[in-house]
């Protein structure tokens, strides 16, 4: 079975631009979470969606938004990019009470 | 709010030697505890998890962890380290098996020949 997939793998953007990151969960998983991992730190929770509804939001500004589609895939959008948004963005999916399974991440560099 | 502390930023272990990575958590109820491993530039791979029951949990790649409620700890162990174990290890806590996770800052494991 395919794991969590994310696209693109790498992305370079300029300050002030907008970016959209995509995630496809493991087949059958209805919950998707997004995390930001800055170099040298552990992942920080951004959003969780379940059945297309936002179930949780971390301490991130309104420039960050997300949505989940009927097929349970998800997009993370970040507007007005700042240098500090440079990070590895991780998507995770879960089905039942077994914990979250992570994708390979999207490396975003803001110049 | 829950929190996770991994007191060791870096650990160097000789190949074939035993390993113990420390993790302490702060949470009011019985936590759901996880260990993940991350190779350079990669995502996170789940090594093992503890939800309830036996406090000694077996995971993949020969890793195990022990939940000690009295010490609020969930330390990761391996009896004999291989060079391929060199990576960064993250301990995480959740409110449930469905919930999002709070991660520690990670411990970088270096394996010397």
Give the fraction of residues assigned to helices of chain B. Answer: under 10%
How helical, in percent, are the residues of chain A? under 10%
How much of the sequence of chain B is in beta strands?
Answer: over 45%
Q: What structural class do the secondary elements of chain A suggest? A: mainly beta
Strand coverage percent of chain A? over 45%
| Multimeric state | heterodimer
Q: How many strands, what sense, and barrel or not for the largest sheet of chain A?
A: 7 strands, mixed
Number of helices of chain A: 0
Number of strands of chain B: 12
Shape of chain A: globular
Question: Could you walk me through the main structural features you see in this protein, from its secondary elements to its overall organization?
Answer:
The complex is a heterodimer of chains A (111) and B (113). Chain A is mostly beta strands and 111 residues long. Helices cover 0% and strands 51% of the residues of chain A. Chain A is built from no helices and eleven strands. Chain A has strands at residues 5-7, 10-13, 19-24, 31-37, 44-50, 53-57, 64-68, 74-78, 87-94, 101-102, 106-110. In chain A, the strands form two sheets. In chain A, strands 2, 4, 5, 6, 9, 10 and 11 form a seven-stranded mixed β-sheet that branches. In chain A, strands 1-3-8-7 form a four-stranded antiparallel β-sheet, with no helix packed on it. Chain A is globular and about 40 Å long. Chain A starts with a strand and ends with a strand. The mean pLDDT of chain A is 94. Chain B has 113 residues and is mainly beta. Helix content of chain B is 0%, strand content 52%. Chain B has no helices and twelve strands. Chain B has strands at 3-5, 10-14, 19-21, 24-26, 32-38, 44-50, 56-58, 64-68, 73-78, 87-94, 101-103, 107-112. In chain B, the strands form three sheets. In chain B, strands 2, 5, 6, 10, 11 and 12 form a six-stranded mixed β-sheet that branches. In chain B, strands 3-9-8-7 form a four-stranded antiparallel β-sheet, with no helix packed on it. In chain B, strands 1-4 form a two-stranded antiparallel ribbon. The N and C termini of chain B lie far apart (41 Å). The interface between A and B is medium-sized, with 27 and 26 residues.
């Amino acid at each position: 079975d395919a794991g969590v997939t994310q696209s693109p793998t790498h992305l370079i953007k300029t300050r002030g631009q907008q970016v959209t990151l995509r995630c496809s969960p493991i087949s059958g998983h209805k919950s998707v979470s997004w995390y930001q991992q800055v170099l040298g730190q552990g992942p920080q929770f951004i959003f969780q969606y379940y059945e297309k509804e936002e179930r949780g939001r971390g301490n991130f500004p309104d420039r960050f938004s997300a949505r989940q589609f009927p097929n349970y895939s998800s997009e993370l959008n970040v507007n007005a990019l700042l240098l500090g948004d440079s990070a590895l963005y991780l998507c995770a999916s879960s089905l039942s009470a077994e914990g979250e399974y992570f994708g390979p991440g999207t490396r975003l560099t803001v110049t | 709010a829950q929190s996770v502390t991994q007191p060791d930023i870096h650990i160097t272990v000789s190949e074939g030697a035993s390993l113990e990575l420390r993790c302490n958590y702060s949470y009011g109820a019985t936590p759901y505890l996880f260990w993940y491993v991350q190779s350079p530039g990669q995502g996170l791979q789940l090594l093992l998890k503890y939800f309830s029951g036996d406090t000694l949990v077996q995971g993949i790649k020969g890793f195990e962890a022990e939940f000690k409620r009295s010490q609020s700890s969930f330390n990761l162990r391996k009896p004999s380290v291989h060079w391929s174990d060199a990576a960064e290890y993250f301990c995480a806590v959740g409110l449930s098996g469905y919930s999002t996770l709070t991660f520690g800052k990670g411990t970088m494991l270096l394996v010397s020949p």
